[in-house]
Amino acid sequence: MKKFLLLAVFCLITGLLKAQTAPQTIKVTGVVIDSTANKPLGYVTVVVQDAVTAKPVMSGLSKDDGSFELKVPKGKAYQLALASIGYSSKAIKISNTAADVNTGKVFLSVSSNSLKEVAITAVKPIMKQEVDRISYNVQNDPESKALTALDMMRKVPLLSVDASDNIKMKGSGNYKILINGKESALMAKNPSDVLKAMPADNIERIEVITTPPAKYDAEGLTGIINIITKKNADQGYNANISGRYNSVYGPGLYGHGSVKEGKLGVSIFAGTNYNTGYNAAFGNTQNIYGGQSTVQNGYGSNKFHNYFGTAELSYELDSLNLLTGSFQMYHGRGDQDNDQTSVTTNYDGSIAQQYGQQTSGFNTFQGLDATINYQLGFKRSKDQLLTLSYKYSYSPNTNYSNNTFSDRLNYDESIQPDFFQNNNSGERAHTIQIDYAEPFKKLTLEAGAKAILRTDFSDFNRSDLDPATMDYVENPIYTDDFNYEQNVYSLYNSYQLKLDKWTAKAGLRLEHTTVNGDFTSVNTTVDQNYNNLIPSVSIQRSFKTSSINFGFTQRIQRPGIYQLNPFVDNSNPKFISTGNPNLKPELNNNFELTYSNFSKNSFTAGLSYQFSNNSIQNVSSLSVDSVPNNKPDTVTKTTYQNLGSNRTLGFNVNTNINFTKALSLSLNGQVSKVWLRGTYNDQFYENTGITGNAFANASYKFNGGYRIGIDAGFFSGDVTLQGHTSNFIYNALVITKEFWNKNATISLVANDPESKYHDDTSTTRTADYYQSSFNQNPYRTFAVRFSYKFGKLNSEIKKNEHGINNDDTKGGGGKSNSGS
Questions:
Q1: With contact defined as beta carbons under 8 Å apart, do 577 and 594 qualify?
Q2: pTM summary value
Q3: What is the C-alpha separation between 79 and 61, in angstroms, rounded?
Q4: Which residues are bridge partners to 576 per DSSP?
Q5: For residues 426 and 396, is the Cβ–Cβ distance under 8 A?
Q6: Are 428 and 455 in contact (CB under 8 A)?
Q7: 810: confidence class by pLDDT, cuts 50, 70, 90
Q8: Quick count: other Cβ atoms within 10 Å of Cβ 32?
Q9: Whole-angstrom Cα distance, residue 739 to residue 563?
Q10: How many helices (H) and strands (E) does the chain have?
Q11: Residue 429 in contact with residue 806, Cβ under 8 Å?
C-alpha cells in the first residue's frame, strides 16, 4: 500500500511539473544599505506596487546581506517601496519592465518618526511582536486576495494547519479562537469550517496572544487566536457552500452567507455532519496485588450526527453607536451498542466470577447562545469605547444506557441485576458585562466588570430489574436531583505602557465566587464562598528584527459540570465513574520567556513553567459497592479530587520556512517535564515524566491551481498522577485543485493509510492494583472535500471591539466526531 501510494504521488507531481508553462515575469533585485553605517540591512520589508493604484503586487524581505529578489509580471509600471522599523521608508519608480530590473544599492536612513514615513508609502512590516502577542498583518500580504482565512493561518507564526484542516498553536490544539475579541460558539466547535468559508481579504490581522491579559477569564490555554476583521464593510453579499465525504465519518455539508445593506448587516453559517458508524474493540485488564485479576474484552458500534448554525446581526445607529446581536445553536447525538465479556480469576488461576454484558444507549449534546451588545464610541479617539453586553447560554445533555447480563458465574442478580440508567444534565448561564477602553499618549487603560450567574443541574436515576416481578424498580443509591449554582462577580483593570524599545502590560482581576450545591434526595448541600486576586504581567524588549518577551499570569480554573456531577456511571459495573461536587477551583501560576525573530522565515522559541498546588486530578481506587438487599462486590471507582501539586517545565519551538514562493515547510515542537504529587485515600502518589509532540507540514503549490501537502505528527501521551497514556503517530496526504477563477476547490485526503485502527491505551498503578485499558479508534480514512464561493462583500459584518467570553471553567474532556 505504501509503495503504491508513493508511486502515485510521484507520478502526479511529475505530470503536473511537465504541464507547467513558464510565466512571463521579470526579476526586481537590489541591495538595501544602512546609510549611516554603510552596512547591508537584513529583514527589510520590500514591496513591488502597482504604479497607478499603489496596491501591492509582490512582497518579501531582504536577506542578511541586504539583497532581495522579487518576481512580477512584465510590461506594467511599478514602484518599489521599502520599509523597516527605525528607518525612513523609501519609494523608487520602475518604468521599464520589459526586462529584469536591478535597482543597485538602496540606502535607508535612520528615522525617529518611522511610523509617519511608513504611512506615506502605505508599506508596513508584515510581522509584529507585541508585548503579549504576535500580529500578522493580512492586508499587507498580496496573497490575501486569493486565499481563505484558513489558508492564511498556515503563514502565521506559532500556527499551523494539518491535512484534516485542524489548526495547531505551538503544536497543540489547546487554545481559544476569538473574532474581534469575542467568543464564538461555532469557533469553539468547528473553527476550520467557519474559516474555510471566510475570505482572507476580510481580515485586517491575526493576533496570537501568548500571555492572555487580565481582561480574559480563561486559564490553562496555550494561548488565544484573535481574528480582527475589516471595520468598514462595502455593500453587497457573499456566500460559500462546502462539503465532504469521509470513508469512516460519512458526509458533511456546510453553508455560509453574509449581506450588507446600508447600516444593517447579517451573517449566517450552518452545517451538518453524519457519521455512518464504525465498529471498534475495547478492553480492561486489572491485577489486584496478591488477589484476583479481571480481564474484560468487548466490541461495539458507534454512530454520530450533528447540526449547528449561527446568525449575527449588526446595526450602525451612527458613526459612534453600534448595536450587534448573535445566536448560535448546536445539536449532536451519539448511539452506541456494545457487547463485552468479563472474567475474574483467583490467584491460583481458577475462575472466581464471569459474565457477559450487552449495553445499548445514546448521548445527546445541545447548546444555545444568544448575545446582544451595545458599543458607544467617543469623538476624542476611535479607540475610546464603552461596551455593554448580555449573553444567555443553555446546554442540556442526556445520557441513557440499558444493560443486560448473561452467562453468569458467581455473578447473579443479587450482586448485579439488569438495569437502565438515565442522566439529564446541563447548564444555564446569564452573563452581564461592561468594558471600557481609553488610550492616552503612551499609556492605554482597560477596565471592566462582569457577572456570570451559572446553574448546573443533573437529574439522574437508575432502575434495577426485580427477578421476582420482572419489573424495574428505582435504585435510591444511584438516584438524585442535583443543582449547583455558581455566581462569579469580577472587576479588572489593566494598563499598557509603550516606550521606544520597551513595552509593559500589567493588570489585576478581582473575582468573588459563591457556590451553592443541593442534593435534593438526600438533603445534602455544598456552600463555598471565596475571593481571588489574579495578576497578569507582560514585558517586551524589542530589537531591529527580533524581540524577547517575558510573561506571568495567574489564572483560576473552575471545575465544569462533567467533573462536578455526582451521577454514577454504572455502564461498566466493575469500573464505575462519578464526579465530585466538593471540588474547589484550581489556581495556576504561569511563567513564559520567548525569543522571536521574523525575517524571511520566522522562528520562535520559548521556555515556560507553570505550577499548581491544588490541581484537579482524575484518580481511581478499589471500593466495595454495597447496594441495599444486594451482595457486596469489589469494584474500581474513578472520580476527581483536588490533590497536591502539578508542575510543568516546557520548551517549544516553531519555524515557518518558505524555500520558494511555491514550497513551504512548517515545524512545531514541544517537550515538557511533568512532576505530579498528591495524597488520595491516605496513600501518597508521585509521578514524573516527559511529554511532547512534534508536527511538520510540507506544502507545494503548482501553477494551474494545484497544491499538495504532506503532514506528519507525533504525540507522546500524557502523564497522570497514577499512570500514563499511550503515544500516537499519524500522517496525511492532501491534494487540492482550485478552479473557476479560484472560487471553487476540490481536495482528496488520505489519513494514515497504513493501518485501519489505532489503540489508545492508558495505565493506572495504585497501592492495591495495576490496570491497563485500551480503546480502538479508526486510523485509516479517505475523504473528498469541495468548496464554492460566490458574491462580493469586502468584509465581515461589523462587530463590537469588546464582548463576553466565558471560558473560565474546566471540562472533563471530549473528542470530536465530525471527521475530516
A1: no
A2: 0.70
A3: 16
A4: 637
A5: yes
A6: yes
A7: very low
A8: 26
A9: 49
A10: 6, 47
A11: yes
What dihedral angle (degrees, nearest 10) is formed by the CA atoms of 473, 476, 478, 479? 90
pLDDT of amino acid 778? 84
Name the helix (H) or strand (E) containing 643: none
β-strand partners of 469: none
- Count CA atoms within 13 Å of residue 206 on its CB side: 25
Cβ neighbours of 137 (radius 10 Å):
18
Q: CA-CA distances (angstroms) from residue 187 to 192, 356, 426?
A: 8, 42, 20
pLDDT at position 294 is 92
List, edge to edge, every strand of the sheet that includes 616-625: 575-577, 633-642, 616-625
Residue-wise pLDDT tens digits, 370-417: 999 999 988 888 788 899 999 998 989 899 999 999 999 998 888 889
What does DSSP say about strands 101-108 and 25-34: parallel, antiparallel, or unpaired? parallel
pLDDT band of residue 261 (cuts 50, 70, 90) is: confident
At 645-697, the pLDDT tens digits run 889 898 988 787 878 878 888 887 888 898 999 888 888 889 999 988 788 88
pLDDT tens readout for residues 288-347: 988 889 999 999 998 988 888 888 888 888 888 989 998 888 888 999 999 999 999 998
Name the strand (E) or helix (H) holding 191: helix 191-196
**CA–CA dist 670, 570 (Å, integer):** 38
Buried b vs exposed e over 789-808: b needs ≥16 C-beta within 10 Å? beeebebbbbbbbbbbbbbb
User: Residue 632 burial (CB < 10 Å; 0-12/13-18/19+)?
Assistant: exposed
| Amino acid (1-letter code) at residue 151 | D
* DSSP per position, 605-654: EEEEEEEESS-EEEEEEEEEE--TTS--EEEEEEEEEE-SEEEEEEEEEE
Query: Please, is 689 exposed, middle or buried when counting C-beta atoms within 10 Å of its C-beta (0-12, 13-18, 19+)?
Result: middle
Nearest to 701 by CA among 741, 656, 737: 737
Are residues 334 and 376 in contact, defined by beta-carbon separation less than 8 angstroms? no
CA angle 29-45-141, nearest 5°? 105
* Per-residue cell: 215: 481582561
Helix (H, G, I), strand (E, B) or coil at 85: coil
Residue-level pLDDT at 799: 55
- 719-720 and 723-725 beta bridge pairing: antiparallel
* Cα distance between the two ends of the chain: 21
pLDDT at 357: 93
- Distance of alpha carbon 73 from the chain centroid: 39
Whole-number Å distance between alpha carbons of 801 and 385: 8
Q: Which residue has the cell 529578489?
A: 69
8-state DSSP, 232: S
428 and 394 in contact (C-beta within 8 Å)? yes
Among 60, 68, 59, residue whose Cα is nearest residue 40: 68
Element holding 120 (H helix, E strand): helix 114-121
pLDDT digits (tens, 9 = 90+) for 605-642: 889 898 888 888 888 888 876 555 566 678 888 898 88
Which grid cell sits at 808?
A: 473560565
Site of grid cell 461536587: 581
Q: Please, which residues have CB within 8 angstroms of residue 595's CB and are 6 or more apart in sequence?
A: 546, 547, 548, 549, 604, 605, 606
80, 104 in Cβ contact below 8 A?
Answer: no
Q: How many Å apart are CA 168 and CA 156, to the nearest integer?
A: 11
CA distance 669 to 714: 9
Question: For residues 259 and 140, what is the distance between their CA atoms, to the nearest angstrom?
Answer: 25
